[in-house]
Write a structure and sequence with these properties.
415 residues, alpha/beta, 6-stranded mixed β-sheet
């Protein structure tokens, strides 16, 4: 497609956050949307994400986002005809220490208050749900039947198709090199294919969000770190509906992957990806293996699932993921520039939360537009009243002037 010269909303970034935002803007009735991707859709970090989709979050609003994402992912394939890989396989979170078990019980109570179905289960019940797991050292576990998993790239493409079906335009291979501003607000973007005027700009650039924000003087506090997981060959007892499993004491997580296990985690001492700036050509690329960095996670995983000691490992994947200082998402209008929105910083949980985040961004922008329209209507109403009053005063003055003139003429005629 040839690049248009204007659009009301421009989205920068064609990963799952950008495609979800575009999809939900279209659902809100906003058709004049242009999504720009410097490479190909999913080419940044979406394509290599693990694809875990959980509901337990620390507060009500974040939980609502995650719950909505599951509702969306479970119906999206029927809407668009594109597979998403969604499987409602449930998840098991285990506790190795009494302290962790207390934390999980508190989390379960909180999740229930937010409307999430959660069950406290025994170590034996956890083993029944996850047969390849060692359970003799566990204090307890929680079972969340509504959790699941998806194929990140397929899910993103399905959202993109849903957005296109509703009129959203998407341009790949177009890099945004600058942001145009007028009177303290966004007025457009500068791209390798020319300028595009816009009223709203949404930064969904993922790991590029910080350096892209800097082009407009907008601070986006996130930084990429190397994130690792292994994928094994097929393992007896592992099947497509095997639940997702998380062992927070071991800093690890699991999901089934083509009959084997995908196991990754978040090592206590993370390894930042020291690349400044991140080149725009870093597309569908991975970082070098680092078994020394991954070793603590692998040790914990062999303890929790002894089958990994002998299972053939097909690959150790090392892909960058963006993290924020406080572990929270970065959503909303930037204080530095009006009309500039950010939807980024998902801390390696973008697949689970982008469905809800895209909806939130779309509703946010639609609400502000509605407020602006209401203010304009109120202003025009007041203006109309003022004009009407002024017209009455003017006509009254004119009438009085005519009356005085006629009276004066008749008086003069009479004399």
């Amino acid at each position: 497609m040839s690049l248009p010269t204007q659009a009301r909303v421009v989205i920068v970034g064609g990963g799952i956050a950008g495609c979800s935002t575009a999809y939900h803007l279209a659902l809100q009735g906003e058709r004049d949307v242009l999504l720009l991707e410097q490479g190909r859709l999913t080419c940044g970090t979406t394509w290599h994400a693990a694809g875990l989709v959980g509901q337990m979050r620390p507060n009500r609003n974040m939980t609502r986002m995650s719950k909505y994402g599951i509702e969306l992912y479970s119906t999206l394939e029927a809407e668009t005809g594109l597979a998403t890989g969604w499987k409602a396989c449930g998840s098991v979170n285990v506790a190795r220490t009494p302290e962790r078990w207390m934390v999980l019980q508190k989390q379960a109570a909180l999740a229930r208050s937010f409307g999430v179905e959660v069950q406290l289960i025994t170590p034996q019940e956890a083993g029944d749900l996850y047969p390849v797991m060692r359970t003799d050292d566990l204090q307890g576990a929680i079972w969340i039947p509504g959790d699941g998993k998806a194929n990140p790239a397929d899910l993103c493409m399905s959202l993109a198709k849903g957005a296109r079906n509703r009129g959203v335009r998407m341009a790949e291979g177009v890099e945004v090199t600058g942001v145009l501003t007028e009177a303290g607000r966004v007025s457009g973007v500068r791209t390798t294919e020319g300028d595009v005027r816009c009223a709203v700009l949404i930064n969904c650039a993922g790991q590029w969000a910080r350096q892209f924000g800097a082009l407009a003087g907008v601070n986006v506090p996130l930084y990429p770190a190397e994130h690792f997981y292994i994928v094994t060959d097929k393992i007896p007892g592992v099947h497509p509906m095997l639940p997702v499993m998380r062992d927070p004491d071991g800093f690890i997580y699991y999901k089934e992957e083509v009959g084997g296990l995908l196991m990754g985690g978040f090592e206590p001492v993370a390894k930042p990806w020291r690349m400044e700036p991140i080149p725009s050509t870093f597309q569908f690329q991975l970082l070098d293996e680092d078994w020394a960095q991954f070793e603590p996670l692998m040790t914990n995983a062999i303890h929790r699932t002894p089958c990994l000691e002998t299972a053939p490992v097909k690959m150790l994947l090392n892909g960058p993921e963006s993290f924020t200082p406080d572990g929270n998402f970065i959503l909303g209008e930037a204080p530095e520039l009006r009309g500039y929105y950010v939807c980024a910083g998902f801390n390696s949980a973008g697949i689970a939360n982008s469905g809800g985040a895209g909806r939130l961004m779309a509703e946010w922008i639609a609400a502000i537009r509605a407020i602006g329209a209401q203010r304009l209507r109120s202003f025009l109403t007041l203006l109309g009243i003022a004009v009407g009053i002024a017209a009455v005063i003017l006509l009254t003055s004119i009438g009085e002037g005519i009356h005085r003139y006629v009276l004066a003429e008749f008086t003069q005629f009479g004399t």
